[in-house]
Design goal:
With 421 residues, the chain is an all-alpha fold. The protein has 18 helices and two strands. It has a two-stranded antiparallel ribbon.
């Protein structure tokens, strides 16, 4: 079996099983009304089942079972305890997520469950045993355990926080895990060691498959959500795969003498999660500053801000995809390509993504300037009244000022373009 055929098999199995069970989960959810009421912060307007995480878990579980039977992955399953710990933690967190999706559990219960799942992985499965800082810096077993648990819980919450638009988490996870899979394969090539990289590569490939299988039903307008069960599952597996690699890579063994490439083992896991982590940090700081719990809900996440700027749901999701590609691929480029090429890619990508992110602001300003120039009488005549929707709404427009039909048609057209860029 070739190097990539085994990974391709488990990816296809994961995608196919997830896709089939996602349709089944949607039918069951619709038939029995297994969906929570629409909340004030929700973007969707139609009650939608949140059982996608269950379908994803089944796809992942079956894919691991298939991998267990393939000789290519014998090295991974030579010690089955880490894999069983990961799957046990995944089952537990999916169960808690489903309960929260149906009955809206208290945040303290969910957080305690996350620590328990992360603790299971760290105790019996995977730990960050060391950090690649000036070689391999090894801490005590207690430090390694605590660091791993904290990292897994952080990533689970970051992924869960950003899950607010159709197709957002699934697409970001596909991009991030694809980049991480490429990174693990480059590490195998660079070091010749594959025992600890194979597990990370397997998790990444299976997770890409599950997200691809789920995405068709989750794309806007979504017919099925992954819910907390799916978001926490994605975060758990992404954090676990990163932990399986980060503490095992000695920069000296890679021949990396430059500062940034030497820190890629630490930077890349953060780079592929840049969007969820940024949203998580901003949300926690915002809520603490307001004197609230960091896990209290609000409508000020990054995806909400993009919608408020004037982006449609699809445009907002594509912008998130773009930022994820630029940061994660750019970080990987510092490891695998000449520095000048990596800098060029990141620079062009940041400028392009920034321009698309801020595009509605320019449209609104142009529309406002045009609205101010359109006179209700003779354009540009001294003393002619200007039509402004904000003035009318606030009662400040002169009620005697005439408003022409052409003016209203023009402004209605501008308003529609502004709402649907």
């Amino acid at each position: 079996m070739s190097q990539f055929s085994g990974y391709l098999i488990v990816l296809v199995v994961s995608a196919g099983i997830t896709f089939g069970f996602a349709h089944l989960a949607r039918r069951v959810g619709v038939k029995y009304g297994l969906h929570p009421p629409i909340r004030e912060r929700d973007v969707h307007q139609t009650p939608t089942p949140r059982l996608g995480g269950v379908a994803m878990f089944i796809g992942i579980l079956v894919a691991f079972g298939v991998a267990w039977q393939l000789p290519f992955f014998d090295l991974v399953f030579a010690d089955p305890e880490p894999v069983l710990a990961i799957l046990g933690a995944a089952l537990f967190i999916v169960g808690i997520g489903v309960a929260d999706d149906l009955w809206d559990l208290d945040w303290m219960i969910k957080l305690a469950a996350q620590f328990m799942a992360a603790g299971l992985v760290a105790w019996l499965g995977v730990q960050i045993y060391s950090l690649p800082i000036g070689g391999l810096t090894v801490g005590s077993s207690w430090v390694s355990f605590s660091m791993t648990v904290f990292a897994i819980v952080l990533v689970m919450n970051a992924i869960n926080f950003v899950d607010g638009l159709d197709g957002l988490v699934a697409g970001v996870a596909v991009i991030a895990n694809t980049v991480f899979f490429v990174y693990t394969q480059l590490l195998v090539t660079s070091t010749g060691a594959s025992d600890y990289f194979n597990l990370a590569s397997l998790i990444a490939a299976i997770l890409v498959g599950a997200c691809l299988g789920f995405l068709p039903l989750n794309w806007h307008p979504a017919r099925l959500f992954m819910g907390d069960a799916g978001a926490l599952l994605v975060g758990l597996l992404m954090a676990t795969s990163a932990a399986a690699v980060t503490g095992q890579v000695d920069p000296a063994a890679l021949g990396r003498t430059q500062l940034l490439p030497a820190f890629i083992p630490i930077l890349l896991p953060f780079a592929i999660l840049i969007v969820p982590l940024a949203d998580f940090v901003l949300a926690v700081l915002r809520r603490l500053r307001a004197g609230k719990s960091p896990f209290s809900a609000d409508r000020m996440h990054l995806h909400h801000r993009l919608l408020d700027l004037g982006h449609s749901q699809v445009h907002a999701v594509l912008i998130f995809y773009g930022w994820t590609v630029v940061i994660s691929v750019g970080c990987l480029a510092f490891f695998a390509a000449p520095t000048w090429l990596a800098v060029l890619f990141v620079s062009v990508g940041v400028v392009t993504c920034t321009a698309f992110t801020l595009l509605p602001i320019g449209r609104r300003r142009r529309a406002d300037r045009l609205a101010q120039r359109v006179a209700t009488g003779t354009e540009g005549a001294p003393g002619s009244a200007l039509y402004d929707r904000l003035d009318e709404a606030s009662g400040q427009r002169d009620p005697e000022a005439p408003v022409s039909g052409d003016t209203l048609d023009t402004l209605d057209s501008l308003a529609k373009k502004d709402q649907h860029p």
